[in-house]
Description:
CATH topology of the largest domain: FAD/NAD(P)-binding domain
Structural class: alpha+beta
Strand content: 25-35%
CATH superfamily of the largest domain: FAD/NAD(P)-binding domain
Strand order of the largest sheet: 17-16-13-14-15-12-18
Radius of gyration: 25 Å
Number of helices: 13
Shape: elongated
Largest sheet: 7 strands, antiparallel
Amino acid sequence: xxxxxxxxxxAGFFSAIHVKVNYPNSNVTLFDKSKKLLAKVKISGGGRCxxxxxxxxxxxxxxxxxxxxxxxxxxxxxxxxxxxxKWFENRNTPLYTQQDNRVFPKSxxxxxxxxxxxxxxxxxxxxxxxxxxxxxISPRSKNLEITFSNGNKESFTHVIVATGGSPKINGLNWLxxxxxxxxxxxxxLFTFNIPKNNISSLMGVSVKNAIVKIQSTKLxxxxxxxxxxxxxxxxxxxxxxSIGARILNQFNYNFKIQINWTNHSNNQLILDxxxxxxxxxxxxxxxxxxxxxLPASLWxxxxxxxxxxxxxxxNELSKKSTNKLLDTLANDIYQVKGxxxxxxxxxxxxxxSLDSINFNTMESKYIKNLFFAGEVLDIDAITGGxxxxxxxTTGFIAGKLGKNC
Length: 405
């Protein structure tokens, strides 16, 4: 058995490793078009590598995937987040789970994960060839012939495609030519650019709980927000960019967001707290009594946006000013113009359609012995280790080459 794995990322390495584990006598070669292996693993999580998520409920886990969640729900029964943690820890790479459920190596260095994968391929005798791009796969009798970018050709009994996300659809033409449906790729997981807005002066300020909505849509997200020098980031924004990837692309990344800075979705509760503050602190300045645990600088920004002077006392607030402050707290509007890639981690929404794949085996429905794993598929998730988990799971299944599935 001669197996080629195309792609030197997380899914590619995991696929290659499990082919060799399942078929010890097989000849396995991993090809990558670049000089750098596991590049995204190295930079993920700010160089710490967010390996997976600590969520152990498969039902909840699958909800983190705007694309592919339903298919992955069954796949996670074969290889879950618990299995990922166990797999790395059994190979002398201890992990720990943060309070937000993100899982990292105890070393807090992505090199631990990279070295674990490299050491495992070396131990198993997997051949790795860099700077070997693939431009075509052709069925030849019982084999699959790969054409490389240098013009060389080589035949294999099985091929696993784990090339990662492609920023443009023409990067997937070679797979479309084999009969696979391709969902046009668009960016996912990005931050919002808000140019020429004085809120950028608050860069570095974060709010633990906020609600973000995209105007004229039903898209909304809840969680922490981080103000940056270019606009807005943080888990709530990143999640919104993921679930709304296609709609925001159609908007050409020009839209308005509506932020509720409080922890209440009910405006009456916000108004009640404002009125309670007025009655309890009539002689205090509004600037010295920030509400809803908001950072002081943000509170002053919201007062200014509500046209309320910082020296104003609470009992001097008119009904009109109180309602204006309520509206700013609950419906603060910003014009987004453009996006910024999150921490240089490129994630795509789109790829090979899941309808083209037998998800029990990750095998192509059109080409026998051709398998897929990772982000080359139309699978993507919110931030939090979920995208890597999809790579580990699909790589594990693809590495079976149809065995026991």
